[in-house]
Amino acid sequence: MKPYFENMERFGKTLKQGRIKRAAASSEQLKQTEKEIEKLKKAVEAAGFSTEKINQRGVMTVWQRIEYLVDPGTWHPLHSLYNPLDNVEGTTNVVNGLAKIEGRWAVVIGFDNKVMAGAWLPGQSENILRVTDLAKRLNIPLVWLVNCSGAKLPEQEKFYANRRGAGTPFYRHAELQQAGIPILAGIYGTNPAGGGYQSISPTILIAHKDANIAVGGVGIVSGMAPRGGFDVEMLEELIEKTREFSASPPGTMATHFDVTGFVSRVYEEETGVLDGLKDYMKAIPAYKPEFFRVATPKAPEFPIEDLYSLLPANQKEVYNFDEVLARLVDGSEHMEFRPDYGPEMYTGLCKVDGMLVACIGNRQGFLGKGYPEYADYPGIGGKLYRQGLIKMNEFVTLCGRDRIPIIWFQDTSGIDVGELAEKAELLGLGQALIYSIQQTDVPMMLVVLRKGSAAAHYILGGPTANRHNAFTLGTPATEIAVMHGETAAVATYSRRALKEKDAGRPLQPIVDKMNALAQHYHDHSQPDYCAQYGLVDEIVKLQDLRSYMQAFAGAAYQNPTSICPRHQLLLPRSIKG
Amino acid sequence: MATEVLVPLAGNIWVVLVNVGDEVEEDDELLVIEALKMENPVYAPCDGTVTEIRVKKGDVVEDDDVLMIIEES
User: CA-nearest residue of chain B to A484?
Assistant: First the structure.
């Protein structure tokens, strides 16, 4: 298959100086948003006690542990700003991302021991479930840095119970292991109750000498029997018990290494635990990238910095999606699938680090006279029409047959609407694409380049594809909402405005409400909001997009659950004809 | 040879980015038409010199109207 993949068709053009000049303000705006997001991330990293204070106790922070554990330059954080229940701590208290350890991709997650000694907080289980889903979708190990003091008790009602509550990750751990996906745990500090199950549920347990893991900790053991209230005498009794249990807490390594043997290794030094995790990572099955490479890896022909001039911050400004893609894939080369059909969608095969990936993206701008063929109005990119939907259904299905991971790029205002669109079967074709994705069952990632709107956000590989979408990235231009705020204001208030007008009442109050609703939509669709509430898994700088694509492709091809031999691929032959 | 730059999509002229006498290259942005709620750039079809501009900001244009003339180099 070398003739197909070693040198594919080049695409993209060198950026014009005029474009760079015209995009200068937009480029600056994108970079400014990136700076603001970076500032928010730094604030989350600084949550709780300072690094100095933790280090003075002879303990490393979770960030220091991650830095020591992962291969340099491979950390790709996810969920950095995720805090869906607005915790005052500014975090759900777990840090996670994709990284290589000893040359192998893993999903890495750790409790932030600077914040309440790594307590369970509201929203945390949802964060963890995103991570277990990710490990399952990519079929790669999950590596835990456990350091969990248990529940933040004053807010337990927000996360302790429920279907996706704090206990659900333990079932997910069991599910991963059932699927043959190992979970490694490096255990530090005091881990009572929930922390105990965080420690015991992985596959391999490696602990620091001062760690303990237990069904219940000192606080629970010393005050377990409720007596209908408290008085000073009872408090004195409690103090004595606490003193006694603190001197000898349950579940030390003397018990769980020497007696139960739950823990495989115990280390004197904190770094020893991390070295132990590295040892186990070396023992985990992983194909070398060469096994699945279809060509020698190449950098894109054009600089990634061009993205700041190509992707306009202004949501109304049309751009060339193919030029964006040419900055992200190996050698700026591709094999486009059905280029003469469904012009609103790009579908094609590209390479990332020499590995085959399928790319699907919304094209922008005027689609040419006579399109869509079923209507008497002009088609515009970003919208989905009949041909584009049919093309994506075919392409995705062939990707499933050929076992090719898919990278989606969204900038969509929705599916075409109206009676002609209904007659053209767009409702059925949209749901057909969901069925095709479900049937395809390959790892997918999504980049919401700008707009993610309407049902198109669902069907274009969106995060709603729980079992397929490994993760979703946003950019500094991302805007996700069911529709544009002004459209929503019209939909909400147009009939009311008519009634007010006919009744002879002033219209200004309606105008004010419409403006307020439009502003509300704006404020609740921007990159920081999308990141905090989990509409995306991370907002990344445009210049980092390719790096995340490399992480995705590397992880997807590390240990795939099914393989299509390259000489039996159908899609490239279908394209070539 | 003179090449006419035609309106690809009816709308309003949002901005004109070149002046008469400007040298342009193929694919340079010449102007932007606001249509279907989007700002759609119109690109130079060839290398050359802008010899005539028939529209200005705010004009309403229809399909296939002539926007400007480029004398090919």
Answer: B37
